[in-house]
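@channel sequence for tomorrow's demo:
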Amino acid sequence: MAVRKLKGSWTVDFQFRCERCRRVSPQNTREGALAYEAHLRGLLTRGEPLPSNSKADNEAKVISLEVFVEEWMTNYVRVNNKPSEQGNKRHALHKHILPYFKGFQLKGITAQSIEAFKAKKQSEGLKAKSINNLVAILRKCLVTAQDWGALEIVPRIKLLKAEAPKYKALNRQDEERLLQAIDDPFWKAVILTALKTGMRFSELVGLEWGDVDLERQILCVRRANVRGHIGTPKNNRTRYIPLTKELVGALQTIWHPGGLAFPFQGSWLGYETGRKHLAAYCHKAGIQVVAWHALRHTFASRLVSEGAPLKAVQDLMGHSTINMTMRYSHLNQTDLRKAVSLLERGPDLDLVPVWCQPEEVSIEKLFSKLSS
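structure tokens (generated this afternoon):
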């Protein structure tokens, strides 16, 4: 066998191109040894040097998770992540991950200890999605440690099965009541832009008039403002969104040359200010109070319910994968009814119904539906 237990330690022992490779697994389990074997074979196949088999060298590389996290946050996270993501990682590490793995060496974090961590967080009432996010951060940290030579192998990590996240969206009646309740041209333009473009709040705050072409009825989402930090939109995706005639009219009422499209009291619009005003208008309209992100969900839901192709919705929303857009797919009842209607077709009808044949749907056609 390529892996076996010798004197209480799981050991990797195999031949590669007539040369013997024998190493003690850094994780003293059979699964860890098998994963370590695969890692060593990969190094040999690529012509890379194997890690030292010296006990003294191995002991010199011992490092705790707490110590490595500081280096990781400074030299990796701050360099590669946006400020908002840096804050998320810092919060997750200091509130959840480091308190549990306090005193753990990097090589001491095993698949078993991670499973115990997941169980602990479940007992504390965290949802599966939140636990998966914590585990993903821990794994990225360990992968970086491996890349930097501080860890020989990353343990296998299994994610929990999580339900698709639920979202709130306004129905047509509540959307109309909300818009009718807004008597301020500025807030009418801001909220209508969110409803008719699906932009995130950070993207609305970062929007400049130079990115809006009212004559061609299109805007470009190229930047985001997260608590004063200007950067690219989420997923680094610049996208172009056509404007409805209603939205063009609202924007024309507040247009001014240059600068931010939606400034507030001489500066950029803060989220708390936006939240309070949106809540006030919801109360005035007599509808349930919703957050800004619900307006984004309303945009996507309306498009899908009108028969928009999911790929078009993905591009308009700036989703990194189609899986993010698929959560709205159940709203397209038309295609579902047409599919079930096949069961009622007679044998003498065409084998390929008309509705199955592809139809080109332009972005402009989709927005004409939203305007109606």
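heads up for whoever presents: The beta strands are 3-6, 9-16, 19-24, 212-213, 218-221, 224-226, 229-231, 239-242, 263-264, 267-268.
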